[in-house]
Amino acid sequence: MLTRIVTLLLISLLSVPAVQAAGQAAQSADVIVYGSTPGGFCAAIAAAREGASVILLEPTDHVGGVNTGGLSFSDSNQTVRSTVMGLFDEWHRRIEADYRQRGVKLPYDVSVKDASKWTYEPHVAAKITKEMLDEAGVKVLTGSVLNSVEKDGATITALKTKRGHFGGKTFIDATYEGDLMAAAGVSWTIGREGREKYGESLAGRQFPKGRMQIDGFDDEGNPLPLITATEAGPVEAGDDRVMVYSFRLCLTKDPANRVPFPAPENYDPARFEVVRRYFAWEERPHLLWDLYPLPGNKFDANNGIGKQFSMGLVGGCNGWSEASAEERQQMWGEHKQYTLEMYHFLTTDPAVPEHLRNAMAELGLCKDEFPEYDHWSPQLYVREGRRMQGMYVLTENDILRNPEKDDPIVVSSFPIDSHDVQRVATKDGYVVNEGTIFPVRMPRRRNGYPYHIPYRSILPRQNECDNLLVPVALSCTHVAISSVRVEPTWMILGQSAGIAAAMAAKLDSAVQSLEYPKLRSRLVAQGQVLELPELPELPPEPEVVVSIDPKSLPGIILDDADATLKGSWARSTNFKPHIGSGYVHDDQRADGQSVALFKFTAEEAGEYELRMAYSAHPTRATAVPVSVTSGSNTTEFNVDQTQALPDGKHFRPIGTVTLEAGSETTLTLSNTQTDGFVILDAFQLIRK
Questions:
Q1: If you ran DSSP here, which 8-state letter would residue 605 be given?
Q2: Residue 365 to residues 189, 271, 453: CA-CA distances in angstroms?
Q3: DSSP assignment of 194-213, as one string?
Q4: Which of 122, 255, 478, 661 has the fewest CB atoms inside 10 Å of its own CB, making it the most exposed?
Q5: Residue 546 burial (CB < 10 Å; 0-12/13-18/19+)?
Q6: What does the alpha-carbon distance between residue 626 and residue 58 come to, in Å, rounded to a whole number?
Q7: At 15, is the pLDDT very low, low, confident or very high (cuts 50, 70, 90)?
Q8: CA 672 to CA 38: how far, in whole Å?
Q9: Residue 432 near residue 274, CB atoms below 8 Å
Q10: Which has the closest alpha carbon to 229: 217, 238, 219?
Q11: pLDDT tens digits, residue range 624-651?
């Protein structure tokens, strides 16, 4: 299979000019861009529009990165769209015009900056990208794997690649991996920082997903396949791991355009034993791939950030950025093999519920997409690679607390959002995915926090390199790249880098010496928005309707609003009456992770009758664990929530507890080994 991959990667996706073989006369341009990612092709177009001669070098044969490689929904609906302009907006307008000329009406209007989803087909994205590069006069040379960098002091003079020798005045590293900056001796890092390094609350280890109560070990005590660790590591510490990679596949159910998934070579069903156990444990099984509808009756298939198992090969991406081109070919093949095996498992294994097997089996590759690659995406979705350690390191604090900068080149507003980093099997019988950061958005809004990315974040330290810009593997932390790492932001960063590179080449100056006011004027002239947005006021929050006021009830009242909640809880007001503004339930997960903790101090010691409010129903759990600890006294109960409350009463007595006066009492409720919905509305304690 690897031979097949290598062969395919020698076929050009886009028609490009013939290139000189290594050893022939050197080629030169004002600006050399290495890497045709969305940031790379936008950098090349922007520099050319400023009057610079530009050569765009791409190490593979595929131009456009994931934008033309299967990612057909770039999440700009989760940004403040009025700030996502420039080449990103033009690119989408031209895609829209292409469909309109063919009589296809898209379900969105690019001129309307609302939260609708902008989607397209990969072959249309590739066509528009090529047209824009051609119109700008950019020379695109594929198969140009970097071999070495020539420098004179801190100045890059030329790049040596497998396809030739290229000199330039300024250079742009637009690779996902930061290959050029690393070869040029620029400082970089990879992985995750510890929480103390930059004072980031989202750094270190993250466990937002509930633990799965499944055994992650085989009969000999060895971790099952797809388990990457048996110890997560210290919670506060960093590491060298990166978030999961996956393909973004273009799929269809249309029989006229559907190509069956190829059967995986050497399929081993044992590889998916942990997923088999997951389906046996999961109360609400669902499709493990995210599917986004596209024009042409197609889908963009993506790794599901909220799913326990999905398209991403957790742990398989570590070492990608540091690997050679040949090693990356092998890792690319390993990711494809995993995806093919996962599809085969999901469509054939009896452990997968039949309705899910049937739903997955309807999907196939698209006959009219990626024909040179047997309809498979040529681009692996590299969500995170190396990160430069440059003039300014962008952090969580810049995003959430200090958004304004003196030298902005982008207004970014995508939520902070990281996919899984590792999958851990614990000795006490659980499997947990670690590293996910669920989207951090502004309260009551779909977008993240708007913030400036400063020019300094794409600049190396001048003593390390004075004519290089790094708009994709920019200077930031793992938490920050979790917001930056989407195509709208990278495209605008690339455009800004291209403009700066052209200006520096014309002035024959160091990129660090550009006068920011002059750079800003050219950014604005090319359509960029650099002012932080003034967001429209939100409508008033709906008034909270209290069914039964806790303050109107006698005794000690512990409403669910007073609890410290851990794990997954869902809020509801469906069943009335309820105490306070509603109640919470565990969604019938029974994973032992949904825990509610109350702490209070009784004014009088003695025996108290403990009562519980809940909405009784046959779907409720029959043995909800509740424990009360006061001083040296601990009392435990199992509450049957299928039992009705006494007529006309809001609470049902569940037992007697002894409370000490003046010392803290703890009441704990959980969903450990429960057999139905666990309801938490309120507790009442009445002194006997």
A1: -
A2: 37, 24, 38
A3: -HHHHT-TT-S----SPPB-
A4: 255
A5: middle
A6: 61
A7: very low
A8: 47
A9: no
A10: 217
A11: 999 999 998 999 999 999 999 999 899 9
> Quick one: tokens of 326?
């040949």
CA angle (620 as vertex; 618, 624 as ends), nearest 5: 140
As a whole number of angstroms, the distance between CA 563 and CA 670 comes to 12
Confidence of residue 321 (pLDDT cuts 50, 70, 90): very high
Query: 522 to each of 90, 93, 170, 529, how far by Cα in Å?
Result: 17, 21, 17, 11
Give the Cα separation of 678 and 535 in Å (integer): 39
Taking residues 598-602, report their average pLDDT. Answer: 95
What one-letter code names the amino acid at 440?
V
Instruction: Please give the Cα distance from 499 to 524 (Å, whole number).
Output: 11
What single-letter DSSP state applies at residue 395? -
> How confident is the model over 128-184, as pLDDT tens digits?
999 999 999 999 999 999 999 999 999 999 999 999 999 999 999 999 999 999 999
Give, to the nearest 10 degrees, the angle between helix 487-507 and helix 516-525.
120
The string of DSSP letters for 124-159 reads HHHHHHHHHHHHHT-EEE-S--EEEEEEETTEEEEE
CA angle 71, 75, 80 (to 5 degrees): 150
> In this predicted model, what pLDDT tens digit does every residue of 197-240 receive, in sequence order?
999 999 999 998 888 999 999 999 999 999 999 999 999 999 99
- pTM for the model stands at 0.82
DSSP state letters, 65-93: GGGTTT--B--GGGS-GGG--HHHHHHHH
